[in-house]
Amino acid sequence: MKKWWQKFYRSNKAMVWAAIISVILTIGILIKVPDEVTRFTLIMPIFAGFILFSILITPDEELDGDFVKNEESKKAPLKKKI
Q1: 47 in a structural domain
Q2: What's the number of domains the chain is made of?
Q3: Is residue 64 domain-resident?
Q4: Can you tell me the distance from the alpha carbon of 4 to that of 82, in angstroms, rounded to the nearest whole number?
């Protein structure tokens, strides 16, 4: 488990720290703010910011996944018409 975590952390440092900051801010809001509607209003931008941050720092190749690779490999070679 420790090797897995070290490998994950090395490749995703920005995401891990963004998640830690989001969780700490959310817990702080849950503790300090008494009104449920205000809690929701303050917590939702944190989650939206985390999602936007994760989308912006993810390389395009990773977002495309294997879909592009599989699509290219399935194409049959074109035959010349005479």
Answers
A1: yes
A2: 1
A3: no
A4: 57
Digit-coded pLDDT (tens) for 30-62? 999 999 999 999 999 999 999 999 989 887 776
What gap in Å lies between CA 20 and CA 50, rounded to an integer? 10
Tokens coding 17: 């720290």
Segments forming the whole domain that contains residue 27: 1-58
- Tokens at residue 14, please? 């920005």
Query: 29 lies in a domain?
Result: yes
Would you put residue 40 in left (φ > 0), alpha (ψ -120 to 50) or beta? alpha
Maximal C-alpha separation, the chain? 78
**Cβ neighbours for 3, distance < 8 A, ≥ 6 positions apart:** none
Contact by Cβ (8 Å): 46, 22? yes
Q: Which residues contact 57 (CB under 8 A, 6 or more apart)?
A: 14, 15
